[in-house]
Structures are given as C-alpha cells and as structure tokens.
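Now read the record:
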Amino acid sequence: MTFLLVAAGGGGDALGAAILARSLGLAIEETVIATFAWERLRVDPLPGPRGTGSFHGLTWRTPDCALVTARTSPVSPSGSTLPRLSGDLGRPLVLLDPHGGEISLRKQLVEAVDAFQVDEVIVVDVGGDALARGNEAGLRSPLADALVLSACAAIDRPVHVSVLGPGLDGELSEPEVMANSRAAEWRVIERRHVGEFTSILRWHPSEATGMLAAAARGARGTVEVRGEGLHAELTELSAGYLWLPLEDVIALSGCARAMSGTSSLSAAEEAVIAVTGRSEIEFERVKARRLSDTGVRQGTRKGFADRLRGFSEAAAERGSDYVTSRRIAEALGLSASDEELRGRLAEIDPDRYVAPLWRTR
C-alpha cells in the first residue's frame, strides 16, 4: 500500500509526518509526504506561503504535482527548509501551492494521489489547529490546515486526520484539543520513533515538532514558545497522536467548511477572517515590518551567555521550565540559525540543553 501524508500546516508538520510514518511502521517506499512551503519569518522573510514560482529546480511529476528535492532551491529573497529536509529524509516532497485556493489545491492533491497510486491519505497536524472550531481565543494560524481539510474531501480514497502532540503549537491548549476530539483514537509515539530524526532536529526550526520529540524522550513541564512568550505544556499526552476520520474534523471546523470553492489565497484568507476575525498573513506582514525596523543583534559569545542567563532567570520566574530556541532568538534579537544557536546552547551547558529545548534552571 502507498500512503500520502499531507502536512497540513507546512513548516514542522512535514517532519511530523515522517515521525508519524515511523510510528505507524511504514517503510519509506510506502509513503509520500506533501507539504506547503510556509516558514517562519526567520527562515523566509516574506510573509505568507510560497508557491511553485518561488523555487528553482522543481521536478514536475504531473502538470499540477511538483516535487521538492535536495537539488531544489528557493528564489531569493525567499527561504525554505524543504530542500534540506528532502535530502535528509531521503525522499522528494510534494509541494502544495495554496495560491489558487481550495479549488486548485484539490486538483493538486487528486493528481498526487493518482501519480503515486495512493491507497490512503493521512492529514498530519502537529499541535491541533486542525481541530479548531474557529472561535478559540488562542487560534492564530488555521488557514493552511483548513485548506487541506477542505480539499481532501474531494479525494476518493480513505482519509484520516492525525493530530500529533495536542496543544504543542501554543495556540489551542491541550484540554481544548482533547475536548474537540472526544471520539478519537489515541496512540503513543515512543522514543524509538523519533531517534532516527535526531540529526534533523539539530537544525530544523520547528518548535512544535521539536517539543513532540522531546516529549517522546520523556521531557515534561511548561515550555515558553515564540516571540510572544506563549506557554505550551509537555505532558503524557504530548508524546502521542489522535486519529480521526476526515468527515468528523470537517464537521467540527468552521474554517474548513468556509474554504470550499475558494479560488485564490486572498479568498481563502477572507474566509478565515469571516470565521475567526483575524488574519495570520496580516500578522506576518506586521511582524515582518517590525523585524525590518528593529533589526537583529549579533552579539559576542560572552555577551550571549550573559543575556541568556538573565533571560532564563526571568523565564523561570514566569513559570517556564523550558524555552525553545525560537523563543530565545526572538526575545534576544539574534540572527543565528537554529542550528548554530542550539550548538551554542549545548556548549554553554549540555545538562540544560534538552534537544531542542533549553532548561531555564
């Protein structure tokens, strides 16, 4: 059998899909991973997702099915983790382009299913945005997930939704995700399921997928995430995933239902605003302007260690047991890559570096 794993939110969901495949015992030749190119601004300074026109060297499997390989590169000034991830995973990644809205995405997914002779589709979401009703106060980035859910309804194969690490993206809380999935099957992700991805987790910038891996290795406590300093909890439920039929999730998701028939990214964005009252792309635009105005500080190694100490003490006083490298970088205005920053954290105090998290005390 061949399984298409659709990384619903882009970013770390593609790595989450690979971890899920390992948990399910699927061989690499049995799986195809599809994902958006939607990165945080530290990776890609341009707000919103990238489309096929933002990459050099794509491989076209069909007229609407483009593949990212290790030889693919983003068109400057865009940035992307996907070519490196493709190389490290040893497989091409199907690039999903959301700029034509749900109608275009539906066609892309149907062509991928046919091109790879897929028997079953699994929508993968790390954190739980896919299970949002649309009125949750913490919901910030439902657009990509909702587009995927809506488009997958047109696929004539069995489709399930898997939510890994409930609450780990700092949006919906773990209790909110679990309350919205009462009938879901629950499965555990074990330490051995994340072990082979250790080298990727050294450089990959995803917070939520990194926390999922840390939870599978036994980390527990409160984690401070993102530049806003939101909190996510590492619990026993963090090291596992929910398993639901697609139709149950669409019935829950107001954003997914609103996506049906949209023919552009702007129409999809307007549909999300109508349900939630906010736009994640506009949030990124504002943040990009702020980052451009304030810039970043390079800092010396000694200066970094001193600032890290002060930040860690303050985070501990806020009740945080851990902070992510992204939170450190954005709070301290650092330009270092996640890979470089994590290496420096491990050098400063290996006992406090719980890959990819930093213990505050």
Observations:
- The two ends are 47 Å apart (CA to CA).
- The chain has two domains: 3-266, 301-359.
